[in-house]
UniProtKB/TrEMBL annotation:
Gene Ontology MF annotations: CoA-transferase activity
SMART domains tied to this protein: CoA_trans
Family: Belongs to the 3-oxoacid CoA-transferase subunit B family.
Protein name, as recorded: 3-oxoacid CoA-transferase subunit B
Organism: Pseudonocardia hierapolitana
Keyword Transcription: no
Alphabetical UniProt keywords: Transferase
SUPFAM superfamilies xrefs: NagB/RpiA/CoA transferase-like
Length: 221
Protein backbone atom coordinates (compact mmCIF):
# COMPACT_ATOMS: atom_id res chain seq x y z
CA UNK A 1 0.00 0.00 0.00
CA UNK A 2 1.15 3.57 -0.67
CA UNK A 3 1.97 6.35 1.78
CA UNK A 4 -1.21 8.16 0.70
CA UNK A 5 -3.33 5.12 1.47
CA UNK A 6 -1.73 4.78 4.89
CA UNK A 7 -2.32 8.47 5.60
CA UNK A 8 -5.99 8.01 4.79
CA UNK A 9 -6.23 5.00 7.09
CA UNK A 10 -4.59 6.94 9.93
CA UNK A 11 -7.08 9.79 9.44
CA UNK A 12 -9.95 7.33 9.95
CA UNK A 13 -8.82 6.33 13.47
CA UNK A 14 -10.34 9.38 15.29
CA UNK A 15 -13.76 8.28 14.00
CA UNK A 16 -13.55 4.93 15.79
CA UNK A 17 -14.61 4.82 19.43
CA UNK A 18 -12.59 2.52 21.68
CA UNK A 19 -14.65 -0.60 22.34
CA UNK A 20 -16.74 -0.28 19.18
CA UNK A 21 -17.46 -3.24 16.91
CA UNK A 22 -15.98 -2.16 13.56
CA UNK A 23 -16.06 -3.76 10.12
CA UNK A 24 -13.19 -2.85 7.81
CA UNK A 25 -13.92 -3.15 4.09
CA UNK A 26 -11.50 -4.28 1.39
CA UNK A 27 -8.63 -2.02 0.30
CA UNK A 28 -7.67 1.12 2.22
CA UNK A 29 -10.06 0.34 5.11
CA UNK A 30 -8.09 -2.81 6.02
CA UNK A 31 -5.07 -0.59 6.79
CA UNK A 32 -6.95 1.01 9.69
CA UNK A 33 -6.11 -2.06 11.78
CA UNK A 34 -2.41 -1.16 11.51
CA UNK A 35 -2.96 2.42 12.71
CA UNK A 36 -5.10 1.82 15.80
CA UNK A 37 -3.06 2.72 18.91
CA UNK A 38 -1.98 -0.12 21.15
CA UNK A 39 -4.75 -0.83 23.63
CA UNK A 40 -7.40 1.00 21.59
CA UNK A 41 -9.77 -1.93 22.21
CA UNK A 42 -11.90 -1.61 19.08
CA UNK A 43 -13.34 -5.01 18.11
CA UNK A 44 -12.63 -5.47 14.41
CA UNK A 45 -15.00 -7.75 12.53
CA UNK A 46 -14.71 -9.30 9.09
CA UNK A 47 -17.74 -10.74 7.33
CA UNK A 48 -16.10 -14.07 6.60
CA UNK A 49 -16.40 -14.84 10.32
CA UNK A 50 -13.88 -13.30 12.73
CA UNK A 51 -14.39 -10.82 15.56
CA UNK A 52 -11.11 -9.62 17.04
CA UNK A 53 -8.97 -8.91 13.97
CA UNK A 54 -5.49 -7.64 14.77
CA UNK A 55 -2.85 -5.86 12.67
CA UNK A 56 -1.26 -7.26 9.54
CA UNK A 57 1.14 -10.12 10.37
CA UNK A 58 4.85 -10.07 9.62
CA UNK A 59 5.74 -12.21 6.57
CA UNK A 60 7.11 -15.02 8.76
CA UNK A 61 3.96 -15.06 10.92
CA UNK A 62 1.34 -15.45 8.19
CA UNK A 63 -1.29 -18.13 8.85
CA UNK A 64 -2.82 -19.04 5.44
CA UNK A 65 -6.08 -20.01 7.17
CA UNK A 66 -6.42 -16.61 8.89
CA UNK A 67 -7.61 -14.03 6.35
CA UNK A 68 -10.12 -11.19 6.10
CA UNK A 69 -12.93 -10.91 3.54
CA UNK A 70 -10.46 -9.75 0.89
CA UNK A 71 -8.44 -12.96 1.42
CA UNK A 72 -5.40 -11.07 2.75
CA UNK A 73 -3.66 -12.35 5.91
CA UNK A 74 -4.62 -10.96 9.32
CA UNK A 75 -3.82 -11.69 12.94
CA UNK A 76 -6.30 -12.44 15.70
CA UNK A 77 -6.24 -10.60 19.03
CA UNK A 78 -6.44 -12.54 22.31
CA UNK A 79 -10.07 -13.45 22.93
CA UNK A 80 -11.01 -13.37 19.22
CA UNK A 81 -13.98 -15.47 18.15
CA UNK A 82 -14.68 -17.38 14.94
CA UNK A 83 -18.08 -18.11 13.45
CA UNK A 84 -19.90 -18.84 10.19
CA UNK A 85 -20.27 -16.12 7.58
CA UNK A 86 -24.04 -16.36 8.06
CA UNK A 87 -23.63 -15.40 11.73
CA UNK A 88 -21.36 -12.54 10.69
CA UNK A 89 -23.99 -11.16 8.33
CA UNK A 90 -26.56 -11.62 11.08
CA UNK A 91 -24.45 -9.26 13.21
CA UNK A 92 -24.33 -6.73 10.36
CA UNK A 93 -28.00 -6.91 9.40
CA UNK A 94 -29.07 -6.91 13.03
CA UNK A 95 -27.42 -3.55 13.72
CA UNK A 96 -24.65 -4.93 15.94
CA UNK A 97 -21.80 -3.32 13.97
CA UNK A 98 -21.24 0.18 15.28
CA UNK A 99 -18.91 1.44 12.54
CA UNK A 100 -18.26 0.24 9.00
CA UNK A 101 -15.28 1.62 7.07
CA UNK A 102 -15.71 1.23 3.32
CA UNK A 103 -13.85 2.19 0.18
CA UNK A 104 -15.54 4.04 -2.68
CA UNK A 105 -15.23 4.58 -6.40
CA UNK A 106 -17.49 7.65 -6.24
CA UNK A 107 -19.40 9.67 -3.63
CA UNK A 108 -22.32 11.87 -4.68
CA UNK A 109 -23.46 15.24 -3.33
CA UNK A 110 -25.80 13.54 -0.85
CA UNK A 111 -23.09 11.22 0.47
CA UNK A 112 -24.29 8.10 -1.32
CA UNK A 113 -21.52 5.87 -2.65
CA UNK A 114 -20.73 3.60 -5.57
CA UNK A 115 -18.15 1.00 -4.64
CA UNK A 116 -18.95 -2.35 -6.17
CA UNK A 117 -19.12 -2.18 -9.97
CA UNK A 118 -17.62 -0.31 -12.94
CA UNK A 119 -19.80 -0.52 -16.06
CA UNK A 120 -18.19 -2.67 -18.73
CA UNK A 121 -15.86 -4.49 -16.35
CA UNK A 122 -16.39 -7.97 -14.83
CA UNK A 123 -18.17 -7.98 -11.47
CA UNK A 124 -17.14 -10.60 -8.91
CA UNK A 125 -19.96 -9.63 -6.54
CA UNK A 126 -21.04 -6.87 -4.21
CA UNK A 127 -19.73 -8.58 -1.08
CA UNK A 128 -21.05 -7.16 2.17
CA UNK A 129 -21.10 -3.47 1.17
CA UNK A 130 -24.87 -3.23 0.69
CA UNK A 131 -25.52 -4.97 4.00
CA UNK A 132 -23.03 -2.75 5.85
CA UNK A 133 -24.52 0.45 4.43
CA UNK A 134 -27.95 -0.58 5.63
CA UNK A 135 -26.99 -2.34 8.87
CA UNK A 136 -24.05 -0.45 10.38
CA UNK A 137 -24.89 2.43 12.71
CA UNK A 138 -22.15 4.68 11.31
CA UNK A 139 -20.49 4.38 7.91
CA UNK A 140 -17.11 5.99 7.19
CA UNK A 141 -15.63 6.08 3.68
CA UNK A 142 -11.85 5.90 3.29
CA UNK A 143 -10.77 6.84 -0.22
CA UNK A 144 -8.32 8.86 -2.24
CA UNK A 145 -9.68 12.31 -3.07
CA UNK A 146 -9.27 11.75 -6.82
CA UNK A 147 -9.18 8.80 -9.18
CA UNK A 148 -5.97 7.60 -10.84
CA UNK A 149 -6.58 9.96 -13.78
CA UNK A 150 -6.90 12.93 -11.43
CA UNK A 151 -10.67 13.29 -11.81
CA UNK A 152 -12.72 13.98 -8.65
CA UNK A 153 -14.26 11.03 -6.84
CA UNK A 154 -16.70 13.31 -5.02
CA UNK A 155 -19.21 14.20 -7.73
CA UNK A 156 -22.69 15.74 -8.08
CA UNK A 157 -24.14 12.37 -9.19
CA UNK A 158 -22.52 8.94 -9.34
CA UNK A 159 -22.08 7.53 -12.83
CA UNK A 160 -21.31 4.07 -11.40
CA UNK A 161 -24.10 1.94 -9.84
CA UNK A 162 -25.00 3.06 -6.32
CA UNK A 163 -24.29 0.57 -3.55
CA UNK A 164 -27.28 1.72 -1.47
CA UNK A 165 -29.55 4.73 -1.08
CA UNK A 166 -28.31 5.41 2.44
CA UNK A 167 -25.73 8.23 2.59
CA UNK A 168 -22.53 7.55 4.49
CA UNK A 169 -21.83 9.57 7.64
CA UNK A 170 -18.18 10.54 7.08
CA UNK A 171 -15.88 10.75 4.05
CA UNK A 172 -12.14 10.68 4.77
CA UNK A 173 -9.50 11.37 2.10
CA UNK A 174 -5.81 12.21 2.25
CA UNK A 175 -6.76 15.89 1.97
CA UNK A 176 -10.02 16.41 3.81
CA UNK A 177 -12.82 15.04 5.95
CA UNK A 178 -16.50 15.61 5.16
CA UNK A 179 -19.56 14.87 7.24
CA UNK A 180 -23.01 14.52 5.74
CA UNK A 181 -26.34 15.96 6.81
CA UNK A 182 -29.76 16.46 5.23
CA UNK A 183 -28.36 19.28 3.06
CA UNK A 184 -25.37 17.33 1.74
CA UNK A 185 -21.61 17.40 2.31
CA UNK A 186 -19.90 19.48 4.99
CA UNK A 187 -16.12 20.00 4.99
CA UNK A 188 -15.07 19.67 8.65
CA UNK A 189 -11.33 18.99 8.55
CA UNK A 190 -8.28 19.66 6.38
CA UNK A 191 -5.07 17.64 6.28
CA UNK A 192 -1.89 19.53 7.09
CA UNK A 193 -0.77 21.58 4.11
CA UNK A 194 -4.16 21.41 2.40
CA UNK A 195 -6.42 24.42 1.88
CA UNK A 196 -10.08 24.92 1.08
CA UNK A 197 -9.17 26.19 -2.39
CA UNK A 198 -7.40 22.89 -3.19
CA UNK A 199 -10.40 20.90 -1.97
CA UNK A 200 -12.80 23.00 -4.06
CA UNK A 201 -10.60 22.50 -7.15
CA UNK A 202 -10.57 18.72 -6.70
CA UNK A 203 -14.17 18.18 -5.57
CA UNK A 204 -16.95 18.28 -8.17
CA UNK A 205 -19.87 18.14 -5.72
CA UNK A 206 -20.94 21.23 -3.76
CA UNK A 207 -20.14 21.35 -0.04
CA UNK A 208 -20.35 23.70 2.92
CA UNK A 209 -17.31 24.64 5.00
CA UNK A 210 -17.68 24.23 8.77
CA UNK A 211 -14.20 23.39 10.02
CA UNK A 212 -14.25 21.78 13.45
CA UNK A 213 -11.95 22.35 16.44
CA UNK A 214 -11.24 25.93 15.41
CA UNK A 215 -9.32 24.88 12.30
CA UNK A 216 -8.72 27.72 9.87
CA UNK A 217 -8.33 27.45 6.10
CA UNK A 218 -4.70 27.06 5.13
CA UNK A 219 -2.85 27.94 1.96
CA UNK A 220 -3.69 25.51 -0.83
CA UNK A 221 -1.04 23.30 -2.37
Amino acid sequence: MTDIQNRIAARVVPHIRPGAVVNLGIGIPTLVADHLPSGHAAHLQTENGLLGVGPTPAPDQVDPDLVHAGKQPVTARPGASYFASSASFGMIRGGHVEVAVLGALQIDAAGRIANWAIPGKPVLGVGGAMDLLVGARTVVVATTHTAKDGSPKIVPECTFPLTAQRPVDVVVTEAATFRTDAAGLVLVDLAAGTGVDWVRAHTAAPFRVELEDGLLPQAGH
